[in-house]
Amino acid sequence: MRAVDWRRSKFSKFTVDPQTESGIIMDNEACASVEKELDRVVTKLEQLHENSAAEIGDIASLMSELVNVLGNAEQMVVTTLNTGTQINATDNVSGSGNSSSDDPMGDGINMQVETEPSAPQRLTDRQMEIIREAISKCNERVQKLSTEHRELHGSVSKIGKAIDRNYSSDFSSTMRVDALQDEDNLMLLNKAIAKHYCRQGMDEVARTLIKECKMSEDHAQDVFDSEREFAEIYNIWNQIQKRELGDALDWAVRHSSQLLERHSLIEFRLHRMRFMQLVSNGLKSQNEAILYARTNFQKFAVRYENEIANLMASFIYLPGGLENTPYRIFLSQDMWTELSFTFLKDACQLLGISKNSALSVVVNAGCTALPALLNIKQVMQSRQVLGMWNGCDELPIEIDLQPEFRFHSLFACPILRQQTTEDNPPKKLTCGHVISNDALHKLSNGHILKCPYCPVEQNAEEAVRIYF
Questions:
Q1: 7 torsion bin: left (phi>0), alpha (psi -120 to 50), beta (else)
Q2: Separation between Cα atoms, residue 104 and residue 96, nearest integer Å
Q3: 399 vs 408: CA distance, rounded Å
Q4: For the structural domain made of 408-465, what CATH number should be given?
Q5: For residue range 88-98, what is the model confidence (pLDDT) as tens digits?
Q6: Is a pLDDT exceeding 50 seen at residue 268?
Q7: Nearest-angstrom CA–CA distance, 354 and 345
Q8: Using CA atoms, how far apart are residues 356 and 88, in angstroms rounded to an integer?
Q9: Which residues are in the CTLH domain (predicted)?
Q10: N or C end of the chain, less CB within 10 A?
Q11: What predicted TM-score, i.e. pTM, was given to this entire model?
């Protein structure tokens, strides 16, 4: 992103370095304020966790004691009832007479004894006291946990308030609302969104968007044609993360010669991972692993001789498995994730396509630039120079983006010390030196131009525009 000439002679008092007070310092203060609230919540949450564990442990102990008391009481009731029943039965039998001759049924007949039900047994005073005490303590602890939990909700809500207080949520101030009033621009945005969906394998969503925005057939076909190759790459990338290498190996074999010319590592790494997959299966896959190594490692023997030799040494650990060996790294998910992203990067470079969609690049770059733009917007509002914001197609300040967002070279004129633009393109003189078009007109005297770096005089009209 390029910065416009701020016309220092007129607007120097309004300029603000976004990397000083209005930029990094303000952001650091805001982050520190929010982080302070977050630390409070984390501390309270840790304390609540410790207190809850202790309180729940106490409740469990009380309940265990209560269960034991009730169990003992039940056993005492059962014992009392059984004893009373046996005594009543004995009395009834004895009262019928001691002589067997008076018993018309004889001794060989079992006599059934009917007894009156005993009165229900009550718990002892001590048992009732223990039960009431346990229930009271449980209620107190549950109430305490509930109160502490409600207090935590208040602390969590303060984080949101701190974010709203320290960060601006009104991003509309940095918008160019007139940009999407043009039908062509709106269609470009719809195409970018549709291409992003295609890259994610969401073709049906892309078709729905195309239908609802009434995109022309030519634009719709361009969406799917431009992303067809990436859709295959994205699908293989997903499969590698799921530890499936079949399609990835087929793709690498199809592009083997091109990958070797570019000195890419991805083909060997795919074969290496497949070999380690076979080895990790144990002795049952030993022969298959040996055959796979003989078939696929031969063309890498010169370049990766030492690494292939190390891979062959993994057979020593087959009886005990690879889990506790130096080769366990090949079983980790980190290795598979790294392999998938290496494949994505090399495949996109080979096919000449970007690994990130245009929409994701624009969104990520915009998120990086947004804090500085919000700061400079506030300054421009306070100084009443908002006309500078919409006066051109460039940003009012320079945004320092990361290297991954730089897709072409920038040329700064060595004479005027400003970056070239479409209206002020770089021009190459016949002597080979390059200056901006504005500098060319300022230095030329009619058609005669003397190069500012060498004494060669030349015709200014012979200078040609160059592209980076």
A1: left
A2: 11
A3: 15
A4: 3.30.40.10
A5: 544 544 444 44
A6: yes
A7: 9
A8: 92
A9: 229-286
A10: C
A11: 0.49
